[in-house]
């Protein structure tokens, strides 16, 4: 049997299990309403939480940057690609996140892989939440450190594992690292960061927080999970975040101490061996942070829209799991029913994709919905009507 036959068999197995995936083409700008395969839909699965991806200020900033700097950085930042806009965004990001400094990465995936591989290696131990993002899981594997999984959001279990495997008197590990998402991307719940930080401080562990879905969303000023929990100081921590979700642009960052930045510049392969972000993308991210800082009415609309939709789903009898954020999963269980549900929504003009294994565990399928600040009250009410109708038809209610 040749490789093409083997690949065909594997793909057919995915089809039989209702786990086969295809790409759908978006033919419009990213907003509350998009055109997919020629059909206009309410977009109910985007991470464009604040609706900034098509904001005029971001467009203008990107266009002006192209005019001044061109379209590409031309090299990695350690060669000739370190442009003044990169330095500017790092300074602005550090101020926004209230850290000493920040370092840009090209994607959240690369940031997590780069940070974890740099800080952890053989002889180290990582304690990771069981529902952490795939980029964290892969970064842990690549690090070659020992990885210990603690129960989801369970700081007590985390502490007991550290006591059992790397307690205060145990010098067998060079470095202890705790890693967690702040907002979990498939469940929409929030990690108990204050409790986890206490554990990290108790054992002198490094704390790495993936703030990708919290930046621009949580906290009075949209600074993310640390502001949300009132955490103002933490000596051994790294905040990873992205510009590609609530900020409507692209790229990622590691925010922390100036020493951490210097270390990552010299050790993070995901930073060293990749071409720098294009100037237009960096300029758009700068504009986005400015909007978040200047206009707090946008995050307010986001949270209000999310509350209305979540409470409407719950009142109808849907299981929205532990959602506390604009990420609102609608639990469906098996893959076949989830695909049917997603199809009925699309037929009614709502685009909300089916989430199936391996993204979630077996039996944990769901429609992952995300409400944005750009959705109108009419959009939300229409979505609720369609969800209830489809849910009753599929006996989910």
Contiguous helical run count: 14
Look at the structure and give the mean pLDDT.
95
Percent of residues in helices: 40-55%
Strand content: 15-25%
Query: Which strand order does the major sheet show?
Result: 3-9-8-7-6-4-5
For the biggest sheet, the summary is: 7 strands, mixed
The run of helices and strands is: HEEHHEHEHEHEHEHEEHHHHEHEEEH
Q: Identify the overall geometry.
A: globular
Q: Radius of gyration from the CA trace?
A: 22 Å
Secondary structure class reads: alpha/beta
Q: What is the number of strand segments?
A: 13
Poorly predicted runs of 5 or more residues: none
**Assembly classification:** single chain
What is the terminal-to-terminal distance?
47 Å
Task: Characterise this structure.
The protein has 397 residues and is α/β, with parallel strands linked by helices. Helix 4 packs parallel to helix 5. The strands form three sheets. It has a seven-stranded mixed sheet, sandwiched between helices.
């Amino acid at each position: 049997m040749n490789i093409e036959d083997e690949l065909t068999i594997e793909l057919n197995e995915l089809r039989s299990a209702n786990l086969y995936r295809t790409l759908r083409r978006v033919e419009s700008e990213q907003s509350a309403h998009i055109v997919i395969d020629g059909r206009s839909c309410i977009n109910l699965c985007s991470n464009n939480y604040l609706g900034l991806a098509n904001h005029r200020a971001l467009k203008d900033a990107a266009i002006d940057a192209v005019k001044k700097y061109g379209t590409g950085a031309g090299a990695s930042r350690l060669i000739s690609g370190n442009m003044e806009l990169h330095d500017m965004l790092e300074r602005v990001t550090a101020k926004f996140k209230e850290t000493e400094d920040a370092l840009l990465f090209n994607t959240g995936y690369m940031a997590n892989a780069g940070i974890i591989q740099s800080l952890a290696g053989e002889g180290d131990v990582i304690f990771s939440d069981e529902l952490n993002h795939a980029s964290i899981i892969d970064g842990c594997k690549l690090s070659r450190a020992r990885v210990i999984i603690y129960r989801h959001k369970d700081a007590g279990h985390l502490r007991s594992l550290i006591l059992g495997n790397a307690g205060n008197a145990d010098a067998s590990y060079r470095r202890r690292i705790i890693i967690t998402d702040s907002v979990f991307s498939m469940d929409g719940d929030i990690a108990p960061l204050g409790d986890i930080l206490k554990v990290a401080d108790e054992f002198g562990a490094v704390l790495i927080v993936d703030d990708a879905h919290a930046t621009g969303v949580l906290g009075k000023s949209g600074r993310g999970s640390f502001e949300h929990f009132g955490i103002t100081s933490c000596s051994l921590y790294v905040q990873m975040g992205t510009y590609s979700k609530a900020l409507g642009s692209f790229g990622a960052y590691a925010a922390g101490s100036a020493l951490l930045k210097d270390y990552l510049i010299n050790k993070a392969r995901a930073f060293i061996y990749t071409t720098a972000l294009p100037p237009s993308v960096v300029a758009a991210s700068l504009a986005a942070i400015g909007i978040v800082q200047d206009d707090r009415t946008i995050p307010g609309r986001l949270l209000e829209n999310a509350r209305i939709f979540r409470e409407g789903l719950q009142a109808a009898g849907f299981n929205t799991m532990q959602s506390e954020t604009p990420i609102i999963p609608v639990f469906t269980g098996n893959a076949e029913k989830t695909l049917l549900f997603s199809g009925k929504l699309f037929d009614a003009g709502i685009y909300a994709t089916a989430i199936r294994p391996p993204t979630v565990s077996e039996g944990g399928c769901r429609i992952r919905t995300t409400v944005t600040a750009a959705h109108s009250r009419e959009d939300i009410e229409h979505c609720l009507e369609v969800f209830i109708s489809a849910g009753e038809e599929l006996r989910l209610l």
